[in-house]
Amino acid sequence: MLSYAVVGGSRGIGLEFVRQLSTVFAMLVRDKARSSYLASVVATASNHIHVLQADVVDHDSLMEDVSESRDMTAG
Which InterPro entries does the record cross-reference, listed alphabetically (predicted)? Predict the structure, then answer.
Protein backbone atom coordinates (compact mmCIF):
# COMPACT_ATOMS: atom_id res chain seq x y z
CA MET A 1 0.00 0.00 0.00
CA LEU A 2 1.32 3.44 -0.88
CA SER A 3 1.82 5.52 2.24
CA TYR A 4 3.02 9.00 3.11
CA ALA A 5 4.45 10.74 6.14
CA VAL A 6 4.32 14.53 6.36
CA VAL A 7 6.55 16.34 8.81
CA GLY A 8 4.90 19.57 9.90
CA GLY A 9 1.43 18.32 9.14
CA SER A 10 -0.41 19.95 12.02
CA ARG A 11 -1.46 23.06 10.08
CA GLY A 12 -1.23 24.94 6.80
CA ILE A 13 0.03 23.24 3.65
CA GLY A 14 1.18 20.14 5.52
CA LEU A 15 -2.28 19.57 6.95
CA GLU A 16 -3.89 20.05 3.54
CA PHE A 17 -1.54 17.40 2.11
CA VAL A 18 -2.71 15.09 4.88
CA ARG A 19 -6.34 15.71 3.96
CA GLN A 20 -5.84 14.95 0.26
CA LEU A 21 -3.11 12.35 -0.20
CA SER A 22 -4.25 9.04 1.15
CA THR A 23 -6.98 6.97 2.70
CA VAL A 24 -4.59 5.86 5.47
CA PHE A 25 -2.20 8.52 6.60
CA ALA A 26 0.50 8.79 9.26
CA MET A 27 1.40 12.32 10.24
CA LEU A 28 4.39 13.37 12.33
CA VAL A 29 3.88 16.28 14.69
CA ARG A 30 5.95 17.68 17.52
CA ASP A 31 3.05 18.03 19.97
CA LYS A 32 -0.29 16.28 19.33
CA ALA A 33 -2.11 18.23 22.02
CA ARG A 34 -1.34 21.74 20.73
CA SER A 35 -3.53 21.92 17.62
CA SER A 36 -7.28 21.97 18.12
CA TYR A 37 -7.77 22.26 14.34
CA LEU A 38 -5.68 19.14 13.79
CA ALA A 39 -7.80 17.32 16.36
CA SER A 40 -10.98 18.30 14.51
CA VAL A 41 -9.61 17.07 11.17
CA VAL A 42 -8.54 13.76 12.69
CA ALA A 43 -11.93 13.36 14.40
CA THR A 44 -13.76 13.62 11.06
CA ALA A 45 -11.37 11.37 9.11
CA SER A 46 -13.02 8.03 9.89
CA ASN A 47 -9.83 6.57 11.44
CA HIS A 48 -7.82 7.17 8.26
CA ILE A 49 -5.43 9.72 9.75
CA HIS A 50 -3.01 8.63 12.45
CA VAL A 51 -1.01 11.27 14.31
CA LEU A 52 2.42 10.17 15.49
CA GLN A 53 4.37 12.37 17.87
CA ALA A 54 8.03 12.73 16.92
CA ASP A 55 11.01 15.01 17.24
CA VAL A 56 12.67 15.20 13.82
CA VAL A 57 16.11 15.59 15.40
CA ASP A 58 15.69 12.47 17.58
CA HIS A 59 16.63 9.41 15.50
CA ASP A 60 15.16 6.91 17.98
CA SER A 61 11.84 8.78 18.02
CA LEU A 62 11.68 8.71 14.23
CA MET A 63 12.53 5.01 14.05
CA GLU A 64 9.69 4.22 16.48
CA ASP A 65 7.31 6.12 14.22
CA VAL A 66 8.59 4.30 11.14
CA SER A 67 7.85 0.99 12.84
CA GLU A 68 4.40 2.14 13.97
CA SER A 69 3.49 3.45 10.51
CA ARG A 70 4.61 0.17 8.91
CA ASP A 71 2.27 -1.69 11.25
CA MET A 72 -0.61 0.63 10.31
CA THR A 73 -0.08 0.34 6.56
CA ALA A 74 1.04 -3.29 6.32
CA GLY A 75 4.41 -2.39 4.92
Answer: NAD(P)-bd_dom_sf
